Amino acid sequence: MAMDRRTHGSGAKLRSVPAIIRTALRRRAIMFYTGFCRSFWGMDLGEGVRISFKARLDKTNPRGVHIGRYSGVSFDAVILAHDFINNRLVDTWIGERCQIGCCAIVYPGVRIGDGVIVAAGSVVTRDVPDGCIVAGNPARIVEKGINPGKYGIRVDTIPPERLDQEMILSEQADV
Q1: In principle, which of 83, 89, 107, 133 could form an S-S bond with 143, CB 3.0–4.6 Å?
Q2: pLDDT in tens, 47-94
Q3: Domain coverage including residue 70
């Protein structure tokens, strides 16, 4: 059996020192950025939230942005909490364990439930119930009954030998 040059005997990939340093620095920078959004802008961001540096969160009404624990917001996603045309400031809620795909737009006043995956490029104009995948413009439910792990990762589709236990959010830890 030939062994891949990038792995050692156990099959785990070896990572170079620069890659390890880059990953550690990026994680710290993301923690700093979410802390800045919490303290300076007053956004309600849950524990472990990951927001891309290129994501655009509403700065007109930053206190109206609410994102639950272990959710991720990808690059070029837009989360609005104000309606300029109707001159109103509203709250926009994103639940726990959600993933907002790249270039998605979440309209002001929308409530996205827990464990929701918003596909890339979707435009969410209405409330979304828990545990589903939405896609399209306007966003429509394409799959129901999902239960993703942290950051909206589909743990039910990953083979058990490749599953990272840290991605599973333990319900017992919440008690």
Answers
A1: 133
A2: 999 999 999 999 999 999 999 999 999 999 999 999 999 999 999 999
A3: 17-152
Q: Which residues of the chain have pLDDT under 50?
A: 1-5, 7-11, 170-175
In a domain, residue 159? The reply is no
Whether 62 is in a domain gets the answer yes
Residue 165 lies in a domain: no
- The burial of 48, by beta-carbon neighbours within 10 Å (0-12 exposed, 13-18 middle, 19 or more buried), is given as middle
The rounded distance, in Å, linking the Cα atoms of 50 and 72 is 5
How are the residues of the chain apportioned to helix, strand and coil, as percentages rounded to the nearest 5? 25, 25, 55
Nearest CA-CA partner of 58 in 96, 101, 94, 98? 94
Instruction: Provide the number of structural domains found in the chain.
Output: 1
Indicate yes or no: pTM above 0.85. no
